[in-house]
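Quick note —
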Amino acid sequence: MMDLLLIVVVVVGIVILRSYNQRLQRLESRVQELQNALAGHVPAVEASESAEPAEAVSQLPGSPIEPPTETAAGSSTESKEAAFAEASTQEQEEEFVALALTQKEESLESTIGARWAVWVGGIALALGGIFLVKYSIESGLLSPAMRLVLAAIFGLFLAAAGEIIRRRSEPVLVNTFQNAMIPGVLTAAGVVALFGSTYTAYGIYGFIGPAAAFVLLGLISVATLGLSLLHGQALAGLGLLASMVTPALIASTAPRPWTLFGYLVFTWLVTIAASRLRRWHLVPSFANALLSIWPLLYIFNSDAVDLTPVTLTVLAMIAGMIFIWPGHYDVAGTAGESAGLAGSEGPSPSSTASHWTAFLTRAPLGMTLTASIGAAAVALSLLIYSLSNGYPLTDASFPFAAIVAAVAAFGASRTYAAWAAILAALAAGFGMFIALMQPEIGAELNIAQIVPALSYLVAYDGLSLGAVFVLVGFFFLRRFGESERPFGTLWGIIMVATPLTIAVISYVTFGNWTRDWLHGLYGIGLGIVLLALAEWLDRRSFKEKIALPSNIFAAGSFAAFVLAVHTLTHDALPTILLPVLGTAFLLAGRARSWPALPWMMVAALIIVLGRIAWQPTIVDPGELGTTPVFNMLLAGYGIPAALAAWSAFEVRGSPDLRLRNTLQALTSFLVLLTVAMLVRHAMNGGVLNANIPTLGEQSIYTLLAIGASATLMALDVSASSHVFRYGGMALGVLSVILILTLHLFGLNPFITGESTGQIPFFNLLMLGYLLPALAYGGVALYGRHRRPLPLVMMLAVAGAVMAFAWATLSVRRFWQGEYIPFWNGVIQGELYSYSVVWLLIGIALLWLGARFDARSLRIASAALVFVTVVKVFLIDMANLEGFLRALSFIGLGAVLIGIGLFYQKVLSGKKATE
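Predicted structure written out below.
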């Protein structure tokens, strides 16, 4: 079984080695061919093969190399070589050639004979060594120690042979088949032999102890990384894999984390240093991933965890990324494109989206992602381990904050590290949510809680981490703000969102909801700093304003002050102070032309509405009192409504139509809401949450809706606005719906039995039916030729229906008294009176329809007269007796004849006019 495992390891290692080396050797071959082509030394037989790469390079935009063409035939060889030398160094050659050149098709013969033969030969060498050892074991020819010594000598021999062949083949790099990598294959096979023999001496035969095995395997791995500088990136990957696997192969009953992570960091640093010399991207990405996996394995597979070496390991990885490799990676070209696009007038949405995509995918993307994701995963694992194992959370929160801050610094120090900034912000928010919400999480997981004093240390760590994001973001904007517009915008969002998120979570968990000075002062300080940053950025970019980050900071400062208001005040004060704060930002718009400033008033009013929905009584219901109008409702609703009205007046000349319309709509709604709540409070004896609705209260709301609709209509006539137009129409429709559902059915005293009052005329029926009828009539009359005809007809018909209901219910009250429920029955005088009143209303509607040429009123009159006719013939005939029955029919006949004469006169007048 052990033999089979070694065979599999060798085969997999060689295959991986081949995949890593293939691309690099292809690039080196193309570079050499290009050098020969530029120097004019291309043999005639290879002219066709070299022409394609040269042509491909020439088609690159801004390519520093021009291929030899007929027009450039007179150029001297010296000028071509000088141009090539000036274009780039050896490392830059590999990059632009990798982008420009396409892979040439090779014949089957060259692929099999010159390339695959080498790789298969390398595998055969490794397997041959394994089989030789196996044979010696089975035959008993050599002792175990001698076999291991011979295996080690065989490995050294292969490595030495690889180096000799590499040196001798160096003068003939023009060889088309140099990417067969004979030296690299031999060296890799030698490394596998050395590694296997050392581990066998420790793990199988026990010839050496764990410490010696660890040292020897580490030395082999480091030596392999050193040889990779000569043989390429693939060998570096093999050495890295061997180095990172070594600690797992050495069994230890008492692992020492400082020794373990010290060795891992050293190996990682060697890999990064080699990668910097050769400008490798793949191997350091692999190294970041492996180095990040080890802390996770240690944390979740150890009985006692020492967080310090884990933290220092991750910090070393981030520091190496910042200062060693990729370090100050050259993204000048992409940065210039960023500035150019940001400065262009009116970029299209598609170009902006594609530019953001290019900005988020800058090389070296692999290294950035592996380091950032690995560091964030380790940081979060510290908190999760602390919660799940009862480890002191305060000991984990600081290492977490340190790691996340380091990742944020990485994102702020390098223009290619956008994902580091994003992942740091996400990790900070999610991690602090886990840490700060630990009392609730711990209760669910049955974890013993730490004392509140220690919990506040976690809050301090979180708030400090939020401040770090603001600090490192400032350094980024100071250094790259004008040249990196998208990245600057991203950092602006992070600098606002991260500290605010942490502060809100901390306040909700540990804050004093009456008055919290810690979070209140933090909000004030953060708001001042963000405002100062907005002002600094606005003044700094005097040539071309960097508007978006400045507006983000302005909005963020408002949000920070909102947090401060909620943490330092309670009850009604936040509801009153929020629109005051919005007004201050609106006035600041006079001094600074930041579009976000006046919109903060809109945000303040929306937050006020949210607070009102959460607590409609503004203060505790027991503290509200019963005094009509002059109570906390007037301040809690009236002050925001008044400031909203002032702000709508203030921005009346603003070119921002959406801002004007939004403030006008909020003002109208708040004014209506203020009046409605004051009326409800007065009519319910100071109780706002009464469970029994009344017609009187609902009538006030309906009249308010009708009045608001008329007000908005008048405002629209004086200053055309979509908010006034459609808002008024919507309120008109809403009031009609209230009438149909509540006045006529749900709260009708004929159905509910509610008292209509003792005064004959000035009673509930007048408030609930007559006044709305008159209001609808007035709105319909005012809206003629100003609103769509269907809406006007609806309002007119609604007024007629309300007038009809008032008259009918008034008749019943005249005969029945204060209470008019349907279960009291109907007497004959009442039944006759309905016919008389309905006919009179029909005549009145007919006259009004003719007077104002309102067809809707004439239709309502005809409908009412028709209903009266049906009533007289079906109901009166069956229920009335004697004189009343005769009088009912006589009156109906007279009215119908009169209506007929009226229509004849009207129609005759129209024909004469025509």
